[in-house]
Design brief:
Layout lengths: L2 E8 L5 H12 L7 E9 L2 E5 L5 E3 L6 E4 L2 E4 L2 E4 L10 H9 L8 H8 L1 H10 L3 E2 L2 E5 L6 H5 L6 E5 L9 E3 L5 H9 L4 E6 L4 E10 L2 E4 L3 E5 L6 H5 L3 E4 L6 H17 L6 E8 L4 E8 L9 H9 L3 H12 L3
Parallel strand pairs: 1-2, 1-7, 8-18
Antiparallel strand pairs: 2-3, 3-4, 5-6, 9-12, 10-11, 10-12, 13-14, 13-15, 13-17, 15-16, 17-18
């Protein structure tokens, strides 16, 4: 019998819009000869499944089952395609752990750590990975811009500490731009990361595990038309993404080794995307952040990298699903 897979999408944050786009692309790419796929939409108002006839039913949260044509359907695994909370921060992973349902993403602990940008860079730095100098700020005890700039040098990036898709993020070149940037970021999160700018080329690298082996996808260089790789650059075509990146073998090996090490240090599972700045002044890849459920839209990097590897996207998702059963 074919395995029943819950493609879990939606979410409770502003990233739900991207999640839905990713889920459509993934649903169209899964091997339907191997898997029966049911899209589960998690919204603040409830958890729902809508069948091909347009009939919407509520998911039974006690065992994560649905009823279809009078039959109760239990899932063999969950394919989590949800950016933001509760799919990327460990909450759903903990829920599935309690129900003993395999899932395709990092586990609850890794998801919670990597969702917090400050904790991610701290763990990576402890493991010997180069990271930018930064400050971790809280809404209940904010620092004045003068106090921040006494510890960090301009330019800096200001971004919500939790979440992704570059929502609420700013690049600050002048001191008088810092306070508005902080206010913008605090509208998205009660924790904010202020990080020194590192000059260099920006690369993003997909890493996944298949049959227990860590594999690195072809590296992508990001050349943005905006001040930085923001939401418009990521999803609205305001950037160039060169895959595979035009780099020397030496730089490629450095980046691949760093990406594999980050994946290992953080005990990642499934496919993740790791962002780096390559500082050419000292020939060092500097990790920016880790995205444990990277975008899977038509405009997203991971599908581009899979294609550049010469892999069939259908087989790639089969690998990701099958790996979930190993835990």
């Amino acid at each position: 019998m074919m395995k029943k897979i819950a493609l879990v999408t939606g979410g409770y944050s502003g990233e739900a819009e991207v999640s839905y786009k990713s889920a459509v692309n993934v649903a169209n790419s899964i091997d339907r000869e191997k898997y029966e796929v049911y899209t589960i939409d998690i919204q603040p108002s409830g958890w729902f499944y809508t069948n091909t006839s347009g009939i919407k039913t509520t998911v039974n949260k006690e065992d994560f089952s649905i009823t279809e044509n009078g039959s109760i359907i239990h899932f063999d695994a969950a394919l989590i395609i949800m950016h933001g909370t509760p799919g990327e921060d460990g909450k759903l992973q903990g829920y599935f752990d309690m129900l003993k349902i395999p899932y395709t993403s990092c586990d609850a602990a890794t998801s919670a750590i990597t969702f917090n940008k400050r904790y991610t860079v701290a763990v990576a730095a402890f493991g010997g990975i180069a990271v930018a100098k930064s400050l971790h700020l809280f809404k209940h005890s904010p620092l004045a811009p003068t106090a921040i700039l006494a510890q960090l040098s301009l330019p800096v990036f200001v971004k919500p500490n939790n979440g992704g898709s570059s929502i609420g993020m700013s690049k600050v070149d002048k001191a008088d731009e810092l306070q508005p940037a902080l206010e913008k970021a605090f509208k998205e999160d009660d924790q904010v990361l202020v990080e020194e700018f590192i000059s260099g080329r920006e690369f993003t690298i997909g890493v996944f595990k298949s049959r227990g082996q860590i594999q690195v996808l072809p590296i992508t260089e990001i050349i943005t038309h905006n001040a930085f790789f923001d939401y418009e650059a990521k999803y609205l075509g305001k950037s160039e993404e060169i895959t595979p990146a035009t780099i020397t073998d030496a730089v490629r090996h450095q980046l691949e080794a760093a990406a594999s090490k980050v994946y290992e240090i953080l005990n990642c599972r499934g496919v993740v995307r790791i962002d780096f700045i390559y500082n050419e002044a000292n020939n060092t890849p500097c990790m920016l952040e880790v995205n444990t459920i990277p975008g899977q839209t038509d405009a997203s990097v991971i599908p581009q990298q899979v294609k550049a590897l010469g892999r069939n996207i259908k087989d790639f998702y089969s690998d990701i699903i099958e790996e979930a059963f190993q835990y």
